[in-house]
Design a protein that fits this description.
Elements: H1 27-42, H2 45-55, H3 59-65, H4 73-79, H5 83-93, H6 97-103
Helix pairs in contact: 1-2, 3-5, 4-5
Protein name: DUF3718 domain-containing protein
Signal peptide: 1-22
InterPro entries: DUF3718
């Protein structure tokens, strides 16, 4: 399950071209973020909602800064055919999910 998250970086948009160096992350926070990525992949809105709530991080911040296997949450969901969770995360980022799918 730990291989779901390559890096989790907050404060920078996952869509930006800025290179960010990895910093120390508390293992308990990392475990919670791995669960969020697993919930995105599961395509269960309820599971995603609960994982976000348990992480203690605002959904909008997660949507902007979380990186799952090198992808932002919306792209990660799309690549894993998790349309329900992809649409939910796209709403948090104000991104058109259908337009993103067309680009993939």
């Amino acid at each position: 399950m730990k291989n779901l998250v390559i890096a989790s970086v907050f404060g920078f948009s996952a869509l930006s071209a800025t290179s960010v160096s990895a910093e120390y992350m508390d293992p308990s926070v990392e475990k919670k973020l791995v669960k969020v990525c697993a919930a995105i992949k599961s395509d269960s809105r309820v599971r995603l909602h609960m994982a976000i709530k348990r992480s203690g991080i605002k959904p909008r911040e997660l949507a902007k800064g979380l990186v799952c296997n090198g992808y932002d949450p919306v792209t990660y969901a799309a690549l894993n055919n998790a349309n329900k969770t992809g649409v939910l995360m796209a709403k948090k980022l104000n991104v058109d999910y259908q337009e993103l799918l067309a680009k993939l």
